[in-house]
């Protein structure tokens, strides 16, 4: 299985940001990624330059940096099926 690098970009500790963090954790634990993933939550209030560097226009935004190609999804990640499809986390089998 490939290793997934997932970065969640948020702005502050809003309810939507908190839901996205919880949903990302649940997604990684429940969807057979095993120990094949790394996640990072980045608060753009603390690192505003990253918003420009990563071309982030809306938050929360989850970016799958690896495996390539990079995939992005915006929102609180509550629609599990849409997140899996949008980030192509089915590993090609789904």
Description:
With 94 residues, this protein is of the alpha+beta class. The chain has a single domain, classed as Glutaredoxin (3-Layer(aba) Sandwich), CATH 3.40.30.10. 30% of the residues lie in helices and 26% in strands. The protein has a 4-stranded mixed beta sheet with strand order 2-1-3-4, with helices on one face. Helix 1 links the parallel strand 1 and strand 2 (37-43). It is globular. The relative contact order is 0.26. The mean pLDDT is 89.
Give the end-to-end Cα distance, rounded to a whole number of Å: 14 Å
Average predicted confidence as pLDDT: 89
What does the radius of gyration come to? 13 Å
Q: Any guess at the CATH architecture? A: 3-Layer(aba) Sandwich
- The CATH topology label is Glutaredoxin
CATH superfamily, called what? Glutaredoxin
Percent in strands: 25-35%
Q: Helix and strand string, N-terminal first?
A: EHEHEEH
- How many DSSP E strands? 4
Query: What oligomeric assembly is this protein in?
Result: single chain
What's the gist of this structure?
The protein is of the alpha+beta class. Helices cover 30% and strands 26% of the residues.
Feature tags:
94 residues; 30% helix; four-stranded mixed β-sheet; alpha+beta; single chain; Glutaredoxin; globular
What secondary-structure arrangement, pairings included, does this model have?
Layout (H helix, E strand, L loop, with lengths): L3 E7 L4 H16 L6 E7 L5 H5 L7 E6 L4 E4 L5 H7 L8
Parallel strand pairs: 1-2
Antiparallel strand pairs: 1-3, 3-4
């Amino acid at each position: 299985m490939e290793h997934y690098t997932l970065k969640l970009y948020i702005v502050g500790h809003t309810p939507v940001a908190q839901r996205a963090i919880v949903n990302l954790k649940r997604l990684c634990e429940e969807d057979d990624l095993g120990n094949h993933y790394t996640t990072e939550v980045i608060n753009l209030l603390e690192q505003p330059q990253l918003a420009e560097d990563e071309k982030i226009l809306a938050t929360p935004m989850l970016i799958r940096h690896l495996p390539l190609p990079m995939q992005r999804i915006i929102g609180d990640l509550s629609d599990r099926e849409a997140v899996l499809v949008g980030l192509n986390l089915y590993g090609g089998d789904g």
